[in-house]
Design a protein that fits this description.
- The protein has 130 residues and is mostly helical.
- Helix content is 85%, strand content 0%.
- α1 packs antiparallel against α2 and α4 packs across α5.
- The mean pLDDT is 91.
Length: 130
């Protein structure tokens, strides 16, 4: 039972990071290029859905969490406009939102998701041996 409570702790950490990503996205969407509004909302809804799924049943969220966090980091890195905004911090607010939402929180999502996945796999293997 103790391992299960630990897994829930890590699962909650993943959900907290996903909620933080969603909040950052709400602030960031109005700052973005209007021609990418549909993509921005799609990504935002993906994070909302992942937060809900991770809160209810983590096993369905861990792979999408890894994939989407990686896509966001790579996408920000490959976008010359994003790199320019982040390196010059002009406009300042956009740069901060891109750095926090696109790197810091995505990195935290990868880390907390990996830790939660590790505990999840341990719990599964312990249940098989009992």
């Amino acid at each position: 039972m103790h391992l299960k409570s630990k897994m829930n702790h890590f699962q909650r950490s993943v959900v907290v990071v996903l909620v933080a990503v969603c909040i950052t996205g709400v602030f960031g969407i109005p700052l973005g290029d209007p021609k990418f509004l549909i993509q921005a909302f799609s990504l935002e809804f993906s994070f909302v859905a992942l937060a809900i799924v991770a809160a209810k049943n983590f096993r369905y969220a861990y792979i999408p969490n890894f994939i989407i966090a990686t896509i966001v980091i790579v996408g920000n890195t490959l976008s010359p406009k994003h790199i320019e905004i982040m390196s010059t911090l002009h406009p300042f607010y956009n740069g901060i939102v891109l750095i926090v939402g696109g790197y810091i929180l995505q990195g935290l999502l990868l880390i907390t998701n990996a830790m939660a996945y590790k505990k999840y796999k341990q719990a599964i293997s312990n249940n098989k041996t009992v």
